[in-house]
Amino acid sequence: MNMHPDTVNIAAYVEGRLSDAEQVSLEAHLAGCAECRDLATGAATLLRGEARRHRWVAGGAAIAAAAVIVLLVSLPAGDSGPVPDVMRDGPAAEGMAAVTVVGPDAGQPVHPDSVVFAWRSVASEALYQLSVTDGAGGAVWETMTAETTVLPPAGTFESDRRYLWYVDAQLPDGNVASTGLKEFRTGTR
Amino acid sequence: MAQPLSLSNRTATPDIDHASGCAECWCAEPNKMPKDPPPELSRLLGAKNSESRGRAWSDFLERYSQLVLRMTRSYGSDYDTMMDRYQFVLAALQEDDFKRLRSYKSHGRSTFRGWLAVVSRRLCLDYDRSQYGRSSRAADTEAPERARSARRKLVDLAGVNLDVGLLAQQSVSDPERTLRETELTDALDAVLRALEPRDQLLLTLRFEDGLSVRQVADVMRYPSVFHVYRALKRVLRHVRKQLADRGVSDAKP
After folding, report:
1. Which one of B36, B125, B219, B227 makes the best mutation probe of the A interface by having the most chain A beta carbons within 10 Å?
2. Residue B216: which of A123, A45, A56 has the closest Cα?
3. CA distance A57 to A170
4. β-bridge partners, A119
5. Per-residue pLDDT tens for B9-34?
6. In A, which residues are within 8 Å of B71 by CB distance?
């Protein structure tokens, strides 16, 4: 067995910064050295996963921001306007896979302290980001989770208000899915 | 030295402001080298007293603890073991006045983040060895069977009707059969050894280590999983041809 390569060289390989000759040499070593392969595999999986996750978060936030802006422009003042059908589809209509919503139900007012967000799993090991805004588009609460049911902290929602929300999912293969923009209304506390 | 860490803080605080364009990972401009060494590392290694060192270590953790934590988590095991491993990695990074961190000399070859990921992985391995005498993965009793299974899969894909994976379990009651199997295994090994290093690594990652196609793409930097599938198809076709040239393509043990 050749001498193990330096950690900088393994990192450089993972990041694609070696010369062609260096890459051939390192790949020859990796093919025969389980330990160095483990280092490269672990680092590559972690770093590439991070990159996919950050692209997803940035992309999801941009789509959501655009959706909220379009929604606000299309709505009358106040928070009682309906969500246009096109916005109900929201990001999901832009070519993303859809995440199916279980609750809260848009048609029935929900007690402010009993709001539970739930949706159907789109894949094992998917990661979900839930974002909630008030009727004027102001951020209310957001969280990231691997679960498909989320109970917001008590006091998050006020009585008799309209809220908008959406869930973006990051799938293990790097793809994304979304509920699109949804709404619900709170009842009296 | 080590600052107490709140797990909730660690997981809630983004370690990089990626939205503004981060040059320290692959989320933006993959060929652009980041500031090297990163300011958090420079401040830490340049700290003159314990107070500034403590502050610098906190800043360093805020930036990099998620990466270390994710690495320790990716190494498997239950939560307690994972946290023990995490603490071990942090302690190892602090040892001897940050000796490991001081050894980081990239010379423009890798990012600090990439280097730290490899070092963290290395320390996870060291931790398992310190606890179990060897890697807990190596101690995995299912590993030999997985390796045999992976090898069988490679043989199947190469079009050779031979269960070489079970060779070790064969009795020696049929010397002729055993000899034939050994010859065939040797032929396969010879063909694999003659492959280009990159093709060898591709088959090793996929069939010996059992990585998913996505993971293979990540390690070998294929642009997509489809490139991996195409490369596998090409290499396996070559292996089949080489085996056929050696007269083993329709071999029966």
Report:
1. B219
2. A45
3. 9
4. A101
5. 323 223 333 333 343 444 434 445 55
6. 42-43, 46
